[in-house]
Amino acid sequence: MIRTVIVALALLLFVPSIALGDLVKGNDASSVPGTVWQFEPSGDARHVQSNWDCPVTIADIPRIQIVVYDTMGTDVSCGYMQGRTSLTLYLTKTDKPVDAAFEEAKAALIKRLPDAKLLPPQEQTTFDTPLALQHVLYSYHDGEEDTGVWIGEISSWLFEVRIDYRPADRDGTFALLTKVTSLALQTAGAHLEACAKAPAGARTGKLIVDKDLTMTYSLVSGASTMIGNKPEFPKPSAPNWCFETVVDGFGQTVLWRDIANNADRLTLGMDEKQQTLVSASDAFIQAVAKETAKDFATIYVATLTQGKRVFTLGFYDGRPDAETLATLARDVLTGKQHPLSSFELGTKTISVDTQSDAK
Question: Of 282, 278, 239, nearest to 261 (Cα)?
């Protein structure tokens, strides 16, 4: 049973998903993938990859559009418009220097507004913000409208602001930009800074192949899930997942790092069929390992959850790397390898594959 249930996912998770194959535009959960944006009942949106918030309104200006430009959700924007004010905010994970991005943004502005004229130096003012930003201001439509571009870096992500506004509304416009930049720093900035400061640690874990041990650990893992946390085994902290990297060679597979618990996860695919493999240490299993007198480092267990069923895919002596986990997920999901065990949350039953490939 373990084999047939999980193999049903087949190869779909490891080919490019059509959900983010092209430019995606929308303004709510029905039109924008939940793997990139999560929406509150109020309509406020949170960018999953960066924790950036794009509220449904800013200073009473309604959000009109959210755009995802790439297949992994690391290049996005939020657009707002009211009257003559049109504001677009961008956040992009890229290695491109700020200077180069700034020149590209200026070129794009001139292409969009061929009649734009650079404002004189004394009018090249800006708004209050602690974020270092390059900026430039232009006028267009014979001076009836102004437009500007601001670009800066937030922990290796580029934050860009583009806005069109009436010259008479400059003070209010700059107050608005102070507000949106402050929100970006409070949400994406705080999260991305925490991610950047937390060391990733070594990922050198090796698969435990001893069949007797993996069977024992599988039973203990199921019992741990069934019993829940006990006082002698501290409860894990609330997870704080950081987007780390796309795993090369495995389609739309992304490595995330939980900086609160030194755990990892792989998200497989970018559409509504997305599956998640988690690699984390287990206090129960660690205690059992000590009793078996095995000289293991911290033992990590790789699991994949489907509905109310938790599949145990492998145990590692130490923290495994992304390629190892992605290979494991691919092999299990395509039937090349079998899960070691599964635990049914509803019935609280444990199933162990006695024909496992472990030796």
Answer: 239
Give the separation between CA 236 and CA 234, rounded to whole angstroms: 6
Q: How far apart are CA 246 and CA 72, in angstroms?
A: 8
Q: Please provide residue 239's backbone torsions phi and psi, each rounded to the nearest 5 degrees.
A: -65, 150
Rg (CA), the chain: 25
pLDDT in tens, 50-73: 999 999 999 999 999 999 999 899
CB-CB contact of 146 with 167 (8 Å): yes
Q: In the structure encoding, which two tokens stand for residue 355, read together?
A: 């024909």
Length of the chain: 359
pLDDT band at 3 (very low <50, low <70, confident <90, very high): very low
Instruction: Kindly state the average pLDDT of the residues 184-209.
Output: 94
What residues contact residue 145 under an 8 Å CB cut-off, 6+ apart? 84, 139, 164, 165, 166, 167
Q: Distance between CA 50 and CA 317 in Å, rounded?
A: 31
